[in-house]
Write a structure and sequence with these properties.
Layout (H helix, E strand, L loop, with lengths): L2 H4 L11 H19 L6 H14 L10 E5 L7 H7 L4 E5 L3 H13 L5 E4 L11 E6 L5 H7 L4 E11 L1 H6 L6 E5 L5 E6 L4
Parallel strand pairs: 1-2, 1-4, 2-3, 4-5
Antiparallel strand pairs: 5-7, 6-7
Helix pairs in contact: 2-4, 2-5
Length: 196
């Protein structure tokens, strides 16, 4: 499956039920959030995060992704959004906090996301397996994240990180091929060819 052909906001293609499922995701997340406080996003901010997540996929070029892992999925950004957009990719969402893990399982059932497995652990507690793509917004330090996930990295694994301006400084010390797609709010940093 070609990511550029599968995901699209403006001129990128998405599955037929994508916008319907994203609406369900937003409604249930905001409803759940009123009781359990899993995120600080307002309705408008949540939509911005969805849009930013989809735009980030364009940075991956034509990478084929069969297996992906999202580290620290939280309220489902980017893991649930990408799982809705990429139904042919198997997504492992790693989230150790109980109320967020419960939310992710609830969303998985509500959206019938058969391509999602929620793992209620910290990454270092997960039995390693090799993946094509690693995503993360939650882990602060890039070098730490690479070291933490090295058992999941194979020769052609790509890492897609969502970072603010501080992330651009962080990646200077990283031993990997780097590509930065800049955006006003977040930078999408693509790493590959790791020295691990």
């Amino acid at each position: 499956m070609n990511l550029k052909n599968k995901i699209i906001t403006q001129n990128i293609q998405v599955p037929e039920d994508f916008f319907h499922n994203i609406q369900i995701y937003k409604e249930h997340l905001l409803k759940w959030n009123r009781v359990h406080s899993v995120t600080n996003y307002s309705k408008r901010e949540l939509q911005e995060q969805i849009d930013l997540t989809l735009k980030s996929v364009d940075c991956l070029d034509d990478k084929r992704v069969d297996l992906a892992i999202d580290i620290g999925t939280g309220a489902g950004i980017p893991g649930i959004i990408l799982a809705i957009a990429l139904p042919e990719t198997k997504w492992y969402l790693v989230e150790p906090l109980q109320k967020r893990y419960s939310l992710l399982n609830y969303l998985k059932l509500k959206l019938n996301l058969q391509n999602v497995e929620v793992i209620p652990k910290r990454l270092e507690q997960v039995e390693p397996f090799k993946v094509d793509l690693i995503t993360s917004r939650a882990v602060k330090n890039t070098t730490f994240l690479i070291n933490l996930s090295k058992e999941f990295i194979k020769d052609d694994t790509i890492m897609l990180l969502y970072k603010g301006d501080e992330g651009l400084k962080e990646i200077e010390e990283v031993k990997a091929t780097k590509k930065v797609c800049k955006n006003k709010k977040l930078h999408y940093i693509v790493l590959k060819d790791f020295d691990v």
